[in-house]
Amino acid sequence: MPDVGRSHAIADAFVERFLIEPTASGPLRGTSFAVKDIFDVAGRATGCGNPTWRATHPVASRSAEVVSRLLGAGARLSGKTRTDELAYSLEGRNFHEGAPRNPAAPERLTGGSSSGSASAVAAADVDFAVGTDTAGSVRVPAAWCGLVGIRPTHGRVPTGGLTALAPSFDTVGWFGRSTTLVRTIGAVLFGNYAQPPDPPRLLAPGALLRDRDLDSLADAATSAAFERVFERECFLSAPPGEVSLQLDLTAATECLRVLQGAEAWRTHGRWIDAHHPQFGPGVAERFAAARVLTDAEIREAALLRAAIGARLDAVLPPGRMLCLPTVPGPAPRRDALAEEMQAQRRRLLPLTALASLTGRPQITLPLLATAAAPLGFSLLGWRNGDEALLATAELLWPS
Q1: Among residues 7, 36, 115, 117, which one is catalytic?
Q2: N or C, which terminus of the chain has less Cβ within 10 Å?
Q3: For the whole model, what pTM was predicted?
Q4: Which pLDDT tens digit goes with each residue over 264-292?
Q5: Which domains does the chain have, with CATH numbers?
Q6: Catalytic site residue 36?
Q7: What gap in Å lies between CA 110 and CA 126, rounded to an integer?
């Protein structure tokens, strides 16, 4: 039985610190960044948070495409950051390597799986960091660490040199302390930074919407903080309207669990059977469940995914964004038991599932907080509407 206490140890945000200078000048000149340890960096191992993975894979011969793009835009790479094992967790603690510190709430976890990237940015060790978001792994730690974090449209950012988990869900996301910088990073990673972005404009009536069923997933303190956001001056030009998605969020969560699990096993099952790696609590159980998913379960989930996508296309067409809490409440305490973490995951996934299942972009802003810890306020956009989403975020939280 794994020693669960090992994962409570405070870990540095970084697996490895090093310095790679930019290869050219550009809009990110003078900034520093870090990348999650599932991205290849030439000449260095990609550990994916698991010692068996590191031991059974060669050193990277070339860097991931996103790393090359950022270096080519003038940013300096400062190291590789910790991840939950194979990015298959939202906890922010790794059985083998510990849990990175959450500078915004030191007694609480960062959230995962891009835990080290969030920690490094929140601690101002770097200006920004790159992570991945499959089921919430940028959005959740960004919210719990008081950061801006984005999951872009699926497929907008290249994934070459990234260790996959569930390819039809995996996205390259990033963290920053400034919406202006996060927007600039987007232009670089989308490949269109030659054109300067338009300044943020006032929102048109009806541009922002909310669904009370989604809002109700948050705890009382988070709900109160969410309501207070709408009282701010920046929302007066376009107060959110009401929409009813009319979705079974429990079924959507199960759909995400099944399809992500099926792809995760398809991606890693052969390696697991060949090398029998030791996984920590939560990750071990998820891979065990993924192993036994049936074809019937997968087919049914795929049909539901298509129906959810069609429903969102109908009620949230281009030009409309959905406001929602990023997380249902504050991050768990560092000493939370495994059962508590599983319960937290069940509460989180209904809020993260919509973007994951439909490939839509979602950005979280540090507009929400309680006395306990930071929270996140999210905007869910339309596919390939990332630039509009980033401009709206800068309008609502200029920084």
Answers
A1: 36
A2: N
A3: 0.95
A4: 999 999 999 999 999 999 999 999 999 99
A5: 4-249+296-396 (3.90.1300.10)
A6: yes
A7: 16
